[in-house]
Protein backbone atom coordinates (compact mmCIF):
# COMPACT_ATOMS: atom_id res chain seq x y z
CA UNK A 1 0.00 0.00 0.00
CA UNK A 2 1.15 3.50 -0.75
CA UNK A 3 1.50 5.81 2.22
CA UNK A 4 -0.62 8.43 0.41
CA UNK A 5 -3.84 6.45 0.85
CA UNK A 6 -3.71 6.56 4.65
CA UNK A 7 -5.90 9.09 6.39
CA UNK A 8 -3.97 11.87 8.08
CA UNK A 9 -4.53 12.64 11.75
CA UNK A 10 -6.63 15.79 12.18
CA UNK A 11 -6.31 16.00 15.96
CA UNK A 12 -5.20 14.01 18.99
CA UNK A 13 -5.59 14.80 22.67
CA UNK A 14 -5.63 13.21 26.12
CA UNK A 15 -9.06 12.27 27.51
CA UNK A 16 -8.90 13.88 30.96
CA UNK A 17 -10.52 12.10 33.87
CA UNK A 18 -13.48 13.77 35.63
CA UNK A 19 -16.24 12.86 38.11
CA UNK A 20 -19.59 11.67 36.80
CA UNK A 21 -22.74 10.11 38.26
CA UNK A 22 -22.61 9.12 41.92
CA UNK A 23 -19.03 8.23 42.80
CA UNK A 24 -18.06 7.39 39.22
CA UNK A 25 -15.30 8.77 37.00
CA UNK A 26 -15.05 9.08 33.24
CA UNK A 27 -12.44 9.91 30.65
CA UNK A 28 -14.38 11.87 28.03
CA UNK A 29 -13.00 11.24 24.54
CA UNK A 30 -15.77 13.05 22.61
CA UNK A 31 -18.01 15.76 24.07
CA UNK A 32 -15.28 18.11 25.28
CA UNK A 33 -14.23 21.61 24.11
CA UNK A 34 -11.56 20.10 21.84
CA UNK A 35 -14.16 17.88 20.15
CA UNK A 36 -17.79 18.69 20.86
CA UNK A 37 -19.02 16.04 18.45
CA UNK A 38 -18.02 14.19 15.31
CA UNK A 39 -21.22 13.34 13.46
CA UNK A 40 -22.84 10.93 14.00
CA UNK A 41 -20.97 10.65 17.32
CA UNK A 42 -21.98 12.89 20.21
CA UNK A 43 -20.05 11.52 23.18
CA UNK A 44 -17.61 8.78 24.15
CA UNK A 45 -16.77 8.07 27.78
CA UNK A 46 -14.50 5.50 29.34
CA UNK A 47 -16.19 5.00 32.70
CA UNK A 48 -14.66 3.70 35.92
CA UNK A 49 -17.28 2.82 38.54
CA UNK A 50 -15.96 1.65 41.93
CA UNK A 51 -18.07 -0.38 44.38
CA UNK A 52 -20.93 1.68 45.80
CA UNK A 53 -21.00 4.08 42.83
CA UNK A 54 -23.23 4.17 39.78
CA UNK A 55 -25.60 6.02 37.52
CA UNK A 56 -29.10 5.85 39.06
CA UNK A 57 -32.31 6.93 37.29
CA UNK A 58 -31.75 9.47 34.51
CA UNK A 59 -33.42 10.28 31.16
CA UNK A 60 -32.31 10.31 27.51
CA UNK A 61 -33.87 11.48 24.26
CA UNK A 62 -32.77 11.57 20.61
CA UNK A 63 -29.72 9.28 20.62
CA UNK A 64 -28.58 5.69 20.86
CA UNK A 65 -26.16 4.64 23.58
CA UNK A 66 -23.75 1.77 23.04
CA UNK A 67 -22.16 0.42 26.22
CA UNK A 68 -19.15 -1.92 26.06
CA UNK A 69 -17.96 -3.59 29.28
CA UNK A 70 -14.20 -4.07 29.58
CA UNK A 71 -14.04 -5.22 33.22
CA UNK A 72 -16.70 -6.24 35.73
CA UNK A 73 -20.42 -6.23 34.99
CA UNK A 74 -23.25 -3.71 34.83
CA UNK A 75 -26.92 -4.07 35.76
CA UNK A 76 -29.35 -2.10 33.62
CA UNK A 77 -33.03 -1.29 34.04
CA UNK A 78 -35.37 1.12 32.22
CA UNK A 79 -38.96 2.28 32.53
CA UNK A 80 -40.14 0.16 29.59
CA UNK A 81 -39.61 -2.98 31.70
CA UNK A 82 -36.28 -3.99 30.20
CA UNK A 83 -33.62 -5.16 32.62
CA UNK A 84 -30.48 -7.23 32.43
CA UNK A 85 -26.78 -7.58 33.10
CA UNK A 86 -23.88 -7.18 30.72
CA UNK A 87 -20.50 -8.62 31.63
CA UNK A 88 -16.93 -8.14 30.40
CA UNK A 89 -16.90 -8.33 26.61
CA UNK A 90 -20.67 -7.76 26.28
CA UNK A 91 -22.43 -4.74 24.79
CA UNK A 92 -25.78 -3.06 25.30
CA UNK A 93 -27.43 -1.04 22.53
CA UNK A 94 -30.15 1.29 23.77
CA UNK A 95 -32.25 3.56 21.55
CA UNK A 96 -33.62 6.47 23.55
CA UNK A 97 -35.78 7.75 20.71
CA UNK A 98 -38.64 9.94 21.93
CA UNK A 99 -37.73 9.31 25.54
CA UNK A 100 -36.45 6.78 28.04
CA UNK A 101 -35.41 6.73 31.69
CA UNK A 102 -32.99 4.14 32.98
CA UNK A 103 -30.39 3.27 35.59
CA UNK A 104 -26.93 1.70 35.21
CA UNK A 105 -25.40 0.20 38.34
CA UNK A 106 -22.30 -2.03 38.56
CA UNK A 107 -22.69 -5.46 40.06
CA UNK A 108 -20.38 -5.97 43.07
CA UNK A 109 -17.18 -7.86 42.27
CA UNK A 110 -15.57 -10.50 44.49
CA UNK A 111 -12.33 -8.53 44.78
CA UNK A 112 -13.94 -5.12 45.10
CA UNK A 113 -12.53 -3.89 41.81
CA UNK A 114 -14.17 -1.22 39.67
CA UNK A 115 -16.37 -1.84 36.67
CA UNK A 116 -14.77 -0.33 33.55
CA UNK A 117 -16.24 0.19 30.13
CA UNK A 118 -17.02 2.53 27.25
CA UNK A 119 -20.23 4.33 26.42
CA UNK A 120 -20.73 5.82 22.97
CA UNK A 121 -23.60 8.16 22.10
CA UNK A 122 -24.70 8.02 18.46
CA UNK A 123 -27.01 10.66 17.02
CA UNK A 124 -30.29 9.51 15.52
CA UNK A 125 -31.36 10.82 12.10
CA UNK A 126 -33.96 13.57 12.39
CA UNK A 127 -36.71 11.30 11.02
CA UNK A 128 -36.02 8.72 13.76
CA UNK A 129 -35.82 11.06 16.75
CA UNK A 130 -39.33 10.08 17.84
CA UNK A 131 -39.07 6.30 17.49
CA UNK A 132 -40.12 4.17 20.42
CA UNK A 133 -37.23 3.21 22.72
CA UNK A 134 -35.65 -0.21 22.26
CA UNK A 135 -32.92 -2.21 23.95
CA UNK A 136 -30.63 -5.01 22.70
CA UNK A 137 -27.68 -7.00 24.04
CA UNK A 138 -24.68 -8.31 22.16
CA UNK A 139 -22.81 -10.99 24.07
CA UNK A 140 -19.05 -11.51 23.90
CA UNK A 141 -19.61 -15.01 22.52
CA UNK A 142 -21.48 -13.53 19.53
CA UNK A 143 -18.65 -11.21 18.45
CA UNK A 144 -16.38 -12.63 15.73
CA UNK A 145 -12.62 -12.17 16.08
CA UNK A 146 -10.20 -12.14 13.16
CA UNK A 147 -6.48 -12.78 13.74
CA UNK A 148 -3.98 -11.55 11.12
CA UNK A 149 -0.32 -10.67 10.59
CA UNK A 150 0.94 -14.06 11.83
CA UNK A 151 -1.04 -13.77 15.06
CA UNK A 152 0.24 -10.32 15.98
CA UNK A 153 -3.08 -8.54 15.37
CA UNK A 154 -6.51 -9.52 16.74
CA UNK A 155 -9.68 -7.62 15.82
CA UNK A 156 -13.03 -8.06 17.54
CA UNK A 157 -15.59 -7.09 14.89
CA UNK A 158 -18.31 -5.65 17.12
CA UNK A 159 -20.06 -4.05 14.16
CA UNK A 160 -19.12 -3.57 10.53
CA UNK A 161 -16.42 -5.46 8.66
CA UNK A 162 -12.66 -6.01 9.01
CA UNK A 163 -10.32 -8.26 7.01
CA UNK A 164 -13.31 -9.81 5.27
CA UNK A 165 -15.10 -10.73 8.51
CA UNK A 166 -18.60 -9.32 9.07
CA UNK A 167 -20.19 -8.60 12.42
CA UNK A 168 -23.06 -10.84 13.41
CA UNK A 169 -25.71 -8.18 13.97
CA UNK A 170 -26.68 -4.69 12.86
CA UNK A 171 -27.94 -3.18 16.11
CA UNK A 172 -27.95 0.59 15.55
CA UNK A 173 -30.16 2.71 13.31
CA UNK A 174 -27.23 4.90 12.21
CA UNK A 175 -24.49 3.03 10.28
CA UNK A 176 -21.60 2.60 12.74
CA UNK A 177 -18.59 0.28 12.70
CA UNK A 178 -16.84 -0.56 15.98
CA UNK A 179 -13.60 -2.56 16.10
CA UNK A 180 -11.66 -3.58 19.22
CA UNK A 181 -8.04 -3.91 18.04
CA UNK A 182 -5.10 -5.51 19.85
CA UNK A 183 -1.61 -5.32 18.34
CA UNK A 184 1.40 -7.25 19.62
CA UNK A 185 4.96 -5.99 19.09
CA UNK A 186 5.82 -6.21 15.40
CA UNK A 187 2.17 -6.20 14.29
CA UNK A 188 0.50 -3.91 11.75
CA UNK A 189 -3.24 -3.26 11.43
CA UNK A 190 -4.94 -1.64 8.43
CA UNK A 191 -8.64 -0.87 8.06
CA UNK A 192 -10.42 0.50 5.01
CA UNK A 193 -12.85 3.32 5.91
CA UNK A 194 -16.00 3.86 3.81
CA UNK A 195 -15.83 7.06 1.75
CA UNK A 196 -17.06 10.23 3.54
CA UNK A 197 -17.35 8.43 6.89
CA UNK A 198 -15.85 9.97 10.00
CA UNK A 199 -13.39 7.85 11.96
CA UNK A 200 -11.59 8.11 15.29
CA UNK A 201 -9.82 5.91 17.79
CA UNK A 202 -9.57 5.83 21.55
CA UNK A 203 -6.41 4.20 22.91
CA UNK A 204 -6.93 1.84 25.84
CA UNK A 205 -3.48 0.36 26.50
CA UNK A 206 0.11 0.81 25.39
CA UNK A 207 1.53 3.09 22.73
CA UNK A 208 0.20 2.81 19.18
CA UNK A 209 2.04 4.17 16.15
CA UNK A 210 -0.54 5.52 13.70
CA UNK A 211 0.60 5.83 10.11
CA UNK A 212 -0.30 9.28 8.83
CA UNK A 213 -0.06 10.41 5.22
CA UNK A 214 3.47 11.70 5.75
CA UNK A 215 4.69 10.33 9.08
CA UNK A 216 4.25 7.79 11.86
CA UNK A 217 2.84 9.30 15.06
CA UNK A 218 3.14 7.47 18.42
CA UNK A 219 -0.03 7.89 20.52
CA UNK A 220 -0.09 6.92 24.17
CA UNK A 221 -2.86 5.47 26.37
CA UNK A 222 -6.18 7.32 26.91
CA UNK A 223 -5.95 9.51 23.81
CA UNK A 224 -8.56 10.38 21.22
CA UNK A 225 -7.27 10.38 17.64
CA UNK A 226 -9.46 11.96 14.93
CA UNK A 227 -8.73 11.24 11.28
CA UNK A 228 -9.29 13.37 8.19
CA UNK A 229 -12.06 12.30 5.82
CA UNK A 230 -9.75 11.97 2.80
CA UNK A 231 -7.84 8.73 2.33
CA UNK A 232 -8.92 5.13 2.02
CA UNK A 233 -7.68 3.58 5.24
CA UNK A 234 -6.35 3.88 8.77
CA UNK A 235 -3.20 2.01 9.70
CA UNK A 236 -1.49 1.38 13.05
CA UNK A 237 1.50 -0.60 14.22
CA UNK A 238 3.61 -1.48 17.23
CA UNK A 239 7.39 -1.65 16.68
CA UNK A 240 9.02 -5.09 16.99
CA UNK A 241 11.24 -3.86 19.83
CA UNK A 242 8.33 -2.50 21.91
CA UNK A 243 8.11 -3.88 25.45
CA UNK A 244 4.33 -4.25 25.23
CA UNK A 245 1.54 -4.29 22.71
CA UNK A 246 -1.34 -1.87 22.39
CA UNK A 247 -5.12 -1.91 22.36
CA UNK A 248 -7.54 0.65 20.95
CA UNK A 249 -11.09 1.05 19.75
CA UNK A 250 -11.61 2.20 16.15
CA UNK A 251 -15.03 3.73 15.51
CA UNK A 252 -16.37 4.76 12.10
CA UNK A 253 -19.72 6.20 11.10
CA UNK A 254 -21.75 7.89 8.38
CA UNK A 255 -22.15 11.60 9.20
CA UNK A 256 -25.67 13.01 9.40
CA UNK A 257 -26.65 16.19 7.58
CA UNK A 258 -28.23 17.86 10.60
CA UNK A 259 -27.37 20.12 13.52
CA UNK A 260 -26.45 18.48 16.82
CA UNK A 261 -27.72 20.22 19.94
CA UNK A 262 -26.86 18.37 23.15
CA UNK A 263 -28.40 19.53 26.41
CA UNK A 264 -27.31 17.13 29.12
CA UNK A 265 -28.85 13.72 28.33
CA UNK A 266 -30.92 15.05 25.41
CA UNK A 267 -29.62 15.11 21.82
CA UNK A 268 -31.85 17.11 19.48
CA UNK A 269 -31.59 19.39 16.44
CA UNK A 270 -32.42 22.83 17.82
CA UNK A 271 -32.45 24.89 21.02
CA UNK A 272 -36.24 24.91 20.99
CA UNK A 273 -36.25 21.09 20.86
CA UNK A 274 -33.82 21.03 23.80
CA UNK A 275 -36.14 23.23 25.85
CA UNK A 276 -39.07 21.02 24.87
CA UNK A 277 -37.19 17.89 25.97
CA UNK A 278 -36.62 19.37 29.42
CA UNK A 279 -40.29 20.37 29.69
CA UNK A 280 -41.49 16.97 28.50
CA UNK A 281 -39.35 15.19 31.09
CA UNK A 282 -40.42 17.50 33.91
CA UNK A 283 -44.10 17.10 33.01
CA UNK A 284 -43.83 13.38 32.13
CA UNK A 285 -45.30 13.86 28.66
CA UNK A 286 -44.54 13.20 24.96
CA UNK A 287 -42.57 10.01 25.57
CA UNK A 288 -41.80 10.41 29.26
CA UNK A 289 -45.22 9.39 30.62
CA UNK A 290 -43.76 6.29 32.27
CA UNK A 291 -41.16 8.38 34.12
CA UNK A 292 -43.76 9.62 36.59
CA UNK A 293 -43.04 7.89 39.90
CA UNK A 294 -40.77 5.29 38.29
CA UNK A 295 -37.94 3.92 40.41
CA UNK A 296 -35.55 1.17 39.39
CA UNK A 297 -34.80 -1.86 41.51
CA UNK A 298 -31.09 -1.69 40.65
CA UNK A 299 -30.84 1.89 41.89
CA UNK A 300 -32.71 1.48 45.16
CA UNK A 301 -29.53 1.58 47.27
CA UNK A 302 -29.14 5.25 46.31
CA UNK A 303 -32.57 6.12 47.74
CA UNK A 304 -31.87 5.22 51.37
UniProtKB/TrEMBL annotation:
Domain Pirin C-terminal positions: 179-286
In this chain the Pirin N-terminal domain maps to: 25-122
Source superkingdom: Eukaryota
Family to which this protein belongs:
Belongs to the pirin family.
What is the protein name stated in its UniProt record?
Answer: RmlC-like cupin domain-containing protein
Q: Give the species.
A: Aspergillus pseudoustus
Amino acid sequence: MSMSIYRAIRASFLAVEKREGIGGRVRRAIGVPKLRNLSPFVLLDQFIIPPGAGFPEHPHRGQETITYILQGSLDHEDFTGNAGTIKAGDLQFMTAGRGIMHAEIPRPTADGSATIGLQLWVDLPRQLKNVEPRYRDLRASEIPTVVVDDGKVAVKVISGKSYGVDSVKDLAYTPVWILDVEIKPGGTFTQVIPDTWNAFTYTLDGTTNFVSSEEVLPIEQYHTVVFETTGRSVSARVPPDAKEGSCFILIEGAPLDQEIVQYGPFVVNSLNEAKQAVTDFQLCQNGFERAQGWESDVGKKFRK
